[in-house]
Each structure stands twice: as C-alpha cells, then as structure tokens.
Design a protein that fits this description.
Number of helices: 7
Largest sheet: 8 strands, antiparallel
Number of strands: 8
Radius of gyration: 25 Å
Distance between the termini: 67 Å
Structural class: alpha+beta
Shape: elongated
Helix content: 40-55%
Length: 240
C-alpha cells in the first residue's frame, strides 16, 4: 500500500477487520489519509488513517507503519495497528447495582488499554462482592478461582498474580506491582466473568426459572406478584 504525491492511496487491502462499533467483520475503505507533503517533511514512523466500515458506515481509525519515503511515494506496511478496541459485550442482568457499576468501569479500562486501572477496578469489583457475600462467600470464591486455575491449567505464577489482584485489598500492592500485560489482563477478564456468572447470573436465572415452573405447575398469587415485579417479565394484555 502506498500514498502518491497527489495524496491518492493505492493497493489498499485491510482485509476483514472487526469493527469496534458494530462488531461485524467487514472490509474497511479509506475515508481520510495523511498529507503526503507533511509525511515527507516530518518523516514519522507511523501514520494514521480514517477508514469507513463496510457494514455500519462508521469511521474507524487505524495506524500504519511507514516502510519507505521517497520523492514520489510513501510505502506502508500492509498490516494496520488497531487503535479502537471493540467494547466487551456483557449483560449486567442479575448483578447488584454496585457490582455492575464497578465491573462496567473495569471493562471501560480494559477497552482503553489501561491495564493497571483495569486490575484496580477488578479488585474493587471483587471487594464489593465480598462485602455482599460475607467471609463465607469470599472463601467460596477463593475455591472457585483455584478450580478455574486447575481446569484452565494456568501456571502457578499467573495464578498467583490473579489471586493477588483479586484478594489483596491494600492499595500499595497494586502501586508496587508491575502493570499486567494484555495476556494476563485477558485471563483476569475471563475469570471475573466466570466469577460473576457463578455468583450472580446462574443463581438468578435458576431462581427465576424455578419460580416460573412452580407457578405454571401450581399457580400461587404470591409467585404471580413476584413475577410481575420482575422488570424482565412482559405482561401481555388481551382485550375483548
């Protein structure tokens, strides 16, 4: 891929990339390219370009490393560096408001590449869970993390890092610790999702399903009122 002196981009081939806005894998077409004269004068290592997603037509910013700058053209390496990360999809149903707020901020930090902040928000999410569940709940979550580490075959050093982030409630430990790399943060993210699922989502779904099964098997006015108060239950009204 190269840019000529008239600011025309040639041989563009981004391939199918995941759009950070619509999450579809689509072809990206150039919408705004850097100025040839400016690049030639400043000789940067990378240059930014704005692409348009072929699926949702949203602008997507990409960086390209510059391979060579000559009098008539500027060559770029074909593989772009993604700048905008897709937002993590997560349903906050069944989570308490305080836990959902902390984990929502954690996902925001993860998307922005702020790994130390992401670890801190995961710790705050865990501390909120411990406050809601008590000491017995904290011990149960510790056992669940040990089980996850065994099933996923995590090495001991990585498992130790995860345990320290989740269970050490002193601010100094995060200040002194090295910033988690993206691989460690990705593991932490999936472990947090699993913990929230086991602690809130699975029990919440099971209680809801059993309540509905019990009601349809043997209707009870109290069960009916409880279901009607559930914001996820839609009441169908029929007219005559």
């Amino acid at each position: 891929m190269y840019l000529d002196a008239s600011n025309q981009l040639h041989d563009v081939s981004t391939g199918a990339l995941e759009c950070p806005h619509c999450r579809n894998r689509a072809q990206l077409k150039p919408a705004a390219v850097p100025d040839f004269a400016t690049l030639k004068a400043t000789i940067p290592v990378v240059a930014g370009m704005v692409m348009i997603c072929g699926a949702c037509q949203s602008p997507v910013f990409l960086r390209y490393r510059i391979k060579d700058i000559s009098a008539r053209r500027i060559d770029f390496y074909s593989t772009p560096q993604e700048v905008e990360k897709p937002a993590e999809r997560y349903s906050y149903n069944y989570l308490s408001d305080s836990v959902a707020a902390s984990f929502r901020d954690a996902l925001g930090c993860y998307r922005s590449g702020l790994m130390r902040a992401f670890a801190a928000m995961c710790r705050l999410t865990a501390q909120t869970i411990f406050e809601e569940l008590g000491e017995s709940g904290k011990l149960k979550i510790f056992d669940e993390i040990e089980e996850i580490a065994r099933i996923a075959e995590l090495d001991e050093e990585l498992a130790r890092q995860i345990r320290n982030i989740i269970f050490d409630n002193t601010a100094e430990s995060l200040d002194l610790a090295a910033e988690p790399d993206r691989a460690t943060a990705a593991v932490l993210l999936e472990i947090m999702k699993d913990l929230l699922h086991q602690t809130y989502v699975r029990p919440g779904r099971l209680k809801k399903i059993l309540r509905m099964r019990r009601y349809f098997a043997d209707p009870d006015p109290e069960d009916e009122q409880e279901m009607l108060q559930d914001p996820k239950v839609t009441v169908l009204k029929t007219g005559r």
